[in-house]
Amino acid sequence: MKLSLPALREMKRDGRPIVMITAYDHPSARIVDAAGVDLVLVGDSAANVVLGHESTVPATMDEMTMLTAAVNRGVENALVIGDLPFMSYQVSDAEAVANAGRLIKDGGADVVKLEGAGPSLERVRALVSAGIGVMGHIGLTPQTATALGGHKAQGRQADAARRLFLDAISLERAGCFALVLEAVPAPVATTISRRLAIPTIGIGSGPGTDGQVLVLHDMLGIRSSDGPQPRFVKHYAEVGDVMKGAIERYATEVRGGEYPAAEHTYSMPPEEVEAFERAIGAGSIEENALADW
Ligand code: KIV
Question: Is the shortest distance between the CB of 216 and ligand 1 below 6 Å?
């Protein structure tokens, strides 16, 4: 049974922590769903972690739609959230509705996510009026990280924290069903979470939010760059090392003639082998086989 938005609210009311993770392809989607997460975000972090870009800005609607569809095909229970990429919703309400509709109709997403408050509030209202569930995202918003002074914590001064608080309230009033709080100091995230009726999902925002989200490749230790990782990233496994070790072993076995072994090889009845050899004949291919071809 798919998790519903009312069920998500109930989880907050009951104090049951909400687990969200990103996924970008079908096999990963099957794994995270089987692991029992509540929410799967097809994040525009795909631009960084699977497409090799330095930021989320280059992610396109075509890419996000394709990735969302692949993930959706692998998820049975979790709610699938399609992430609206940069410039897919900033221009107008009409474009926002059309692009969100595409993530839902073509990508199979259950709901969408967008970043920011201020000008985004009108977009949230337009999407909700069109019957589309919207998750908000404030604090460190990677699509506009340059304007925020880089990838760093937001709301560390009282004034900025107050603005974040007001943004959170405005997004709830505009109709968001939940809110991501990214890189927000723990006391601010906790207060916002207590004051909102909708669930908050934290990333780098401490333990006081209603749920947590991590980027799949970060928590699995699959690195897309050699740069430092944010302090909130915890490696639950070193899958990158496991993959590299496996591929090194494969290369060694191919080079050493150990792979493929008999059990990896298709056989053929000896009489068929003989008949095949006879049919090919002893002469050159040009003389025997290709002449008839
Ligand atoms: O794109 C993404 O993965 C995100 C999460 C970090 C919340 O927005």
Answer: no
Q: CB within 8 A of 254, min separation 6: which ones?
A: none
- Which has the closest alpha carbon to 228: 128, 130, 133, 151? 151
Question: Does residue 182 have an active-site annotation?
Answer: yes
> Which of 49, 180, 205, 233 should be mutated for ligand 1, with most atoms under 8 A from CB?
180
pLDDT tens by residue, 28-77: 999 999 999 999 999 999 999 999 999 999 999 999 999 999 999 999 99
The pTM (predicted TM-score) of the whole model is 0.93
Strand, coil or helix: 293: coil
The residue whose C-alpha atom lies closest to atom 8 belonging to ligand 1 is 43
Evaluate: CB of 43 within 6 angstroms of ligand 1: yes
The CB of 209 under 6 Å from ligand 1? The reply is: no
Question: What is the C-alpha to C-alpha distance for residues 130 and 100, in angstroms, rounded to an integer?
Answer: 10
Strand partners, 42: 82
Q: Are residues 22 and 40 in contact, defined by beta-carbon separation less than 8 angstroms?
A: yes
